[in-house]
Every structure is written in structure tokens, then in C-alpha cells.
Design brief:
The protein has no helices and 15 strands. By secondary structure, it is mainly beta. The radius of gyration is 18 Å and the shape is globular.
Length: 267
């Protein structure tokens, strides 16, 4: 079943009924994102009774909303990362000069641009029996840091022309949302850390898998496979960054690993 997506550029105000706080464990974040029970849902869908503990890893920029019937999850974010970057304003405590980075925007910074907040709705249990769907330009997921995940394209082409603008986190601002194209090193760097969740409801992890302690060898074309994770005792389908260096020599930081090229599998 195709997902019902909200506008990924503007988060509309929600009427919330029950608030449940939780603690985050992601880099530079002290408080977890909010988990909220929402009084709505659709009949006839598979449901859950509680959220995966993986959501505990999201920063306080992210709010997670579980429908009362347990069939859908709304995920919202301010879009602001919880780590340093050249794309913060110079007087922000998280600003860091990166001489090798050629910024995409000189006058627009994180927190000072348009459309930085985003949200989308996913099935609580991804539909892995449906058709695969290609990724598109724009937000394709939300990272545990609070920022957006993009695919391996920039405009109508590949990443090569924009490579020099990607900061140490594999991200840039362009000029709307600050977003990752490459392995987000503040979150994961050649390990098995949770990176975030994509718009098909499937979690994505670093290049290694916690079930084996090394690079998985059974990944499909999307970088997905089924195994246990740090947060589930039963094997589930999830993505990894594919452990293949992106062949380009003009990145400020190398080596480069594409975060997710797709296609989505959870439709």
C-alpha cells in the first residue's frame, strides 16, 4: 500500500492527546524525541502495541506519533542537526569552519532558511510484499540527528558537481533543508549505529551489522536484509549503507559512501 505523506517542507500544527517523553542516545543530544499517542488510525492494517526502542535514539528535534490503533507512525522534525557544521551561522556554538568545503549557500544557514521542518507518515509495519519504489529528489528519510536524508542525486544529476559543498558529515544545505547524501559521520563511521528511518518505514543502519559484527554479505540492491538488530530480538528487514566507496575525487572529505540510493522496499 502506498503511504500517505504529509508535506515534507512544512510541519503543520497537530492536536496532541498524550505525551510520552523518552531519552535519546544520539550524538550531542541529551533529551530524546517525543513519543505521542494520536487518536486516529485506519482499519484493516497490521498494528503494533508499542514503538521500537530504536526510536529512543532520535534527538529531541524529532517527534514520533503512534496512532491509537497502532497502524501508523507520524515522524516530524525541526530539521536542525545536533552536531557541528560549517552550515550553522558563525555565532552558533555548533558552527565549525571547514576550509575544504565550498558552501552551496553563503547567506543561508541552518535555522535561517526556508522549509527546514519536515514530516511524513509510515505504516507501523512496512509492507514488504508490495512493489519497490524509486527514490525521488528531496527528503527520503529523517536521521536520528534530526536532519533530512537525501538520495544519491543532486538536482538532475549525480553528486559529483556538488561534492565540494558536502561538509564533514556528508551533508549540505541547499538552500532549504540541511541534508545528508553520504555516510553521516557524526552518527555512524564504519560501524553498526542506527542512522534513521526512511519514508517507507524501514530503519537504516551503518555499514556494519550488529548481528555479525562485520559488513553484511547478503544485502539486496537497496542495501537491505533481514536479521536481528540492537533494538529487535526478532529478525526484521532493515537497510545498511552499502560498503562501496563512491568513485569521485572531488569531495572535501574522503572516502565517500552514499547513504541510500534506493529503491524503497517497504511499499
Amino acid at each position: 500500500m502506498m503511504k500517505r505523506f504529509k508535506n515534507v517542507n512544512i510541519v503543520l500544527p497537530l492536536i496532541l492527546f498524550v505525551f510520552i517523553g523518552f531519552t535519546a542516545c544520539s550524538t550531542d543530544a541529551d533529551d530524546g524525541g517525543d513519543v505521542i499517542i494520536e487518536e486516529e488510525g485506519e482499519e484493516g492494517e497490521e498494528s503494533i502495541t508499542e514503538l521500537s526502542s530504536a526510536f529512543d535514539q532520535f534527538s529531541d528535534a524529532v517527534t514520533v506519533i503512534l496512532s491509537s490503533d497502532g497502524t501508523q507512525i507520524d515522524i516530524e522534525t525541526t530539521g536542525f542537526p545536533n552536531h557541528r557544521s560549517i552550515y550553522w551561522e558563525t555565532d552558533n556554538e555548533l558552527y565549525e569552519d571547514e576550509p575544504l568545503v565550498n558552501k552551496t549557500t553563503q547567506d543561508t544557514f541552518i535555522g535561517g532558511g526556508r522549509g527546514e521542518a519536515s514530516s511524513f507518515t509510515v505504516d507501523a509495519i512496512p509492507d514488504l510484499d508490495g512493489a519497490t519504489v524509486a527514490t525521488e529528489l528531496g527528503t527520503i528519510g529523517i536521521a536520528v540527528s534530526g536532519s533530512a536524508i537525501f538520495n544519491d542525486q543532486e538536482g538532475m544529476g549525480d553528486l559529483d558537481d556538488a561534492a565540494g559543498s558536502l561538509d564533514w558529515a556528508g551533508a549540505h544545505k541547499g538552500p532549504g533543508v540541511y541534508h545528508y547524501h553520504l555516510e553521516p559521520t557524526p552518527i555512524t563511521s564504519d560501524d553498526d549505529s542506527l542512522i534513521g528511518i526512511l519514508m517507507d518505514g524501514v530503519f537504516i543502519y551503518g555499514r556494519q551489522c550488529s548481528s555479525t559484527g562485520t559488513y553484511p554479505t547478503d544485502l539486496d540492491a537497496s542495501g537491505g536484509h533481514t536479521s536481528t538488530t540492537q533494538y529487535e530480538t526478532e529478525a526484521i528487514y532493515h537497510y545498511h549503507i552499502i560498503n562501496e566507496v563512491y568513485p569521485a575525487g572531488n569531495y572535501a572529505y574522503e572516502p565517500a559512501y552514499v547513504l541510500f540510493a534506493g529503491p524503497f522496499q517497504g511499499y
